[in-house]
Amino acid sequence: MKKLVVLSGAGISAESGIKTFRDAHGLWEGHDIMEVASRIGFDKNPELVFDFYNKRRAQLLEVQPNAAHKIIAELQNDFEVHIITQNVDDLHERAGSKNIIHLHGELLKVRSIYNDQIILDWKKDLFIGDLDKFGNQLRPHIVWFGEEVPVMDNAIKIVEQADILLVIGTSLQVYPAAGLINYVKQNSPVYYIDPKPATIYDLPNPLEIIALSAIKGMEKLRELLIMNDKL
Predict the structure, then answer these.
(1) Are 185 and 31 in contact (CB under 8 A)?
(2) Could you read off the pLDDT of 195-217 as tens digits, one per residue?
(3) What's the mean pLDDT in 114-142?
(4) Has residue 226 got a pLDDT over 90?
(5) What is the mean predicted confidence (pLDDT) over 145-150?
(6) Where are the alpha helices (DSSP H) in 8-133?
């Protein structure tokens, strides 16, 4: 069974109603990114950071996986599918996908500010005074700007093993995630689904750009993959 590796970004969840938050001016819901997505911002104003993620968490619990998430899950019947996502939502999981790496953390989890190995499932609001078992404050389980991406090495290993690479719903502008595409084997085809795809330079792979939305693009790609698998 061929290994299909999926790199997914905000564009796939946008069709479920998840706001991408970051606008053309680099603001997230009117906030400077460093105010709500950095340790410096958290130390300066934790109440603002908690409120920002509480709203995101509440929104996530109101939406559902869309057809693009579901098609990727269905492809597990024909391929060994591994998902490496920049998204902090759980829509891939809810759609039925099994092998998922969250590069930037998970919105429905929290962790201790002093021990990043203490991670708890969390679906309610988070406040100052919510503590781990040792009495330390909890924070969103999110990789903020300036923080190391702890699962990056594992993600690289998975991309290196890909027989097929799918990039969907990402502008390929956020590093180190965007650099993962450069680790795919030269003989492995790359499919890129995005209505406004970024320009990819010097990729020594067969590359097919599908300039469609996530749902329409996955409908087309499903036909291509199944057809090619039968050849």
Answers:
(1) no
(2) 999 888 888 899 999 999 999 99
(3) 97
(4) no
(5) 93
(6) 10-14, 33-36, 39-44, 46-60, 67-74, 91-95
Whether the CB-CB separation of 107 and 140 falls below 8 Å is answered with: yes
Q: Which helix (H) or strand (E) covers residue 170, if one does? A: none
* Amino acid at position 80, single letter: E
Q: What is the token pair recorded at 205?
A: 């792979």
Average pLDDT, integer, range 214-222:
97
**Residue whose C-alpha is closest to residue 85's, from 74, 71, 69:** 69
Tell the residue number behind the tokens 């998902």, with chain if given. Answer: 83
Q: What is the pLDDT of residue 228?
A: 72
Exposed (0-12), middle (13-18) or buried (19+): which is 4, by Cβ within 10 Å? buried
> What domains appear along the chain, each with residue ranges and CATH number?
1-17+65-104+149-231 (3.40.50.1220), 19-62+105-142 (3.30.1600.10)
Catalytic residues: 104
- pTM comes to 0.93
More confident residue, 184 or 175: 184
Token pair 């499919």: residue: 191
Cα–Cα distance, 39 to 37 (Å, whole number): 7
